[in-house]
Amino acid sequence: MNKISRREFLKFASFTAATLGLSQSVPEVAYALENAAKGQPPVIWIQGASCTGCSVSLLNSVHPDIKEILLEIINLKFHPNISAATGHVAVEAFLGEAEKNKGKFFLVVEGAVPTKDNGVYCSIGEKDGRELYFSEVVKELGEKAKAVIAIGTCAAFGGIPAADPNPTGCVPVTEIIDPKKVLNIPGCPPHPDWFVGSLAHVLLYNELPKTDKFGRPKMFYEGIIHDNCPRRQYFDNSIFAKDFSEPGCLLLLGCKGPVTHSDCPTRLWNGGVNWCIKAGHPCIGCTEPGFPDKTGPIYEKMPEIKLPGISASADTFGEVVGAATAIGLGAHLIGNIATGRLGGHKKKKKEGEE
């Protein structure tokens, strides 16, 4: 196992403390990550009904990069995409590691879990002369793991494989394993920091981070896209783009930012270069339960928009905002109305008026 210098760890820890929103001091974060570099924690990564996009996203991690993650931060015992072993040798390898590290390893599950017809639609190997189904592996390894990370929306909520009509009976990991043991890291795909940061938190506190009602770590998923969107001013001023060449809020082009929880606007992707809306594309709501059924079609307006105190169809939403009245608009918009930000105009007081 390669060694990491203290200076390298402090550099990484400084970045981690800033980007993960951890209020703890840099030495404490460095201490946690030094423990990881000593071969802890063991990680077994398995894949079911997925496109492997979550693994690909992790490859784009910048601080730390993928080499540091795989060789110096986690002790990766098994990953199907980079495993040298195949067939029964690979199966024996990850099952053996799970038994040897029982109660100590982290299980990372990528992809939804097919359950129809006893899980026959997702076979990941053979054991004792029969097919080994993904559903039974998730259950067996999940019971032995210290904690389970459901990486990506497919694993966390079912995602695309579980979309209607769901012919293989795909379900999220939490329907196979006790939800109290599972940390959901949704996204299609998730940001690398969401995985690495969650793991760093577990190492630091020896417990899962605080989560919302959907099992997502609050430090990454507490806010909604809409609140920090760089196009929010367009929304406040009732400027809505009608096509992708126009400036304006992308709500009418299908943006799901008002109902989507994540820190994409402030974290950015690909090393802090860009993200969906900055690239001119509407948010597709990929971190939410029910994606893609409840957030699709991607480029069509949401049939109903729900914000604090507001419930209006997308067809009439522009009229509601344009009217600039406080009726049904919600507390977070009332301040904009009072100051004149909403609609872009503030009625000038006539001379003598108070």
UniProtKB/TrEMBL annotation:
Keywords: 3Fe-4S, 4Fe-4S, Iron, Iron-sulfur, Metal-binding, Oxidoreductase, Signal. Pfam families: NiFe_hyd_SSU_C, Oxidored_q6. InterPro entries: Cytochrome-c3_hydrogenase_C, NADH_UbQ_OxRdtase-like_20kDa, NiFe-Hase_small_C_sf, NiFe_Hase_small_N_sf, NiFe_hydrogenase_ssu, TAT_signal, TAT_signal_bac_arc. The keyword Iron applies. Its main location: other. One of its GO terms (molecular function) is hydrogenase (acceptor) activity. It is an enzyme of class 1 (oxidoreductase). Residues 221-299 form the Cytochrome-c3 hydrogenase C-terminal domain. Residues 51-201 form the NADH:ubiquinone oxidoreductase-like 20kDa subunit domain. Its EC number is 1.12.99.6. NCBIfam families: hydA, TAT_signal_seq. Heterodimer of a large and a small subunit. This is Hydrogenase small subunit.
